[in-house]
Amino acid sequence: MYLPNKFKYESLKRVEVDGKRKYATPDGEKLPSVTTVLSATTPKEKLEKLNEWRNRVGHKKAQEITTEAASRGTRMHKWLEDYVKTGKIGAPGTNPYSIQSHKMAENIIYQGLVKCNEFWGTEVPLYFPKIYAGTTDLVGIHDGNEAIMDFKQTNKLKKREWIDDYFLQLVAYSLAHNEVHGTKIQKGVIFMCSADNIYQEFILEGSEFLEYESKWFSRLEEFYSKLL
Predict the structure, then answer these.
(1) d(C-alpha 220, C-alpha 48), whole Å
(2) pLDDT band with cut points at 50, 70 and 90 for residue 212
(3) pLDDT tens digits for 201-210?
């Protein structure tokens, strides 16, 4: 069930401040995005592994892989957004890339979104006053609990320990939603499908959710300390 009027989600305008992209919020602030905070505080060892991969496959090939994945993810997100709003998913047409992303979206719908009782919004703009802002893919009820949910595509299957940043995003958006809209969200869900159409689902809740809250606050502290 799609309930777009349950909360008043005010749009956030993207602006450039001193050469950096930020979100202009309804209270007049210009805030960094969640992804900006995470990117600026990426652990050194993770950056080293990323550079090793680029050097191994070649920078041109790495860029091709990244671009293709982003394009596939954009298409998949559009199919899923349409489904959340209408309860239907249209035909993909004959474009092979569209067909691939359509199959991925169907996998997420029939294995993941069927567990959702309500959808409150898709591509939802959120902000924590004076601190950060961003957009989450989905907000609603998952298996009876209010939750922040994100759609992810992947080139290969992921292990739980590889997706720290995804969990940090879920926590960041949950905290922002709770602060502005008075909810008590403490659950996040990642709906993921690989390029070869294998579905994965990751749920963050309970003590693990609280653990990632602490990690997110630490990343925020690190981000703002670098600006001083």
Answers:
(1) 22
(2) very high
(3) 999 999 999 9
Domains (ranges, CATH) in the chain?
Answer: 13-45+104-225 (3.90.320.10)
Residue 110 CA: distances (Å) to CA of 7, 40, 103, 114, 135 = 26, 36, 11, 6, 24
Tell me the one-letter amino acid at 115: K
Nearest residue to 169 (alpha-carbon basis) of 209, 225, 113 = 209
Residues 6+ apart with CB under 8 A from 198: 107, 157
Instruction: For the chain, give percent helix, strand, coil, nearest 5.
Output: 50, 30, 25
User: Rounded to an integer, what distance in angstroms lies between the CA atom of residue 179 and that of residue 148?
Assistant: 14
Which of 152, 149, 131 minimizes the C-alpha distance to 194?
A: 152
| CA nearest to 97, candidates 80, 123, 61, 73 | 73
Which pair of tokens denotes residue 141?
A: 């009820």
Q: Which amino acid is at 143?
A: D
* Greatest Cα-to-Cα distance within the chain, rounded to the nearest angstrom: 53
Closest by alpha carbon to 41, among 228, 224, 222? 222
pTM of the model: 0.90
Taking alpha carbons only, the member of 58, 61, 84, 71 closest to residue 2 is 84
Q: Which of 137, 120, 136, 124 is nearest to 80 (CA)?
A: 137
Nearest CA-CA partner of 174 in 205, 135, 147, 141: 147
Residues sharing a CB contact under 8 Å with residue 26, sequence separation 6 or more, in sequence order: 10
Which tokens belong to 212? Answer: 């990632």
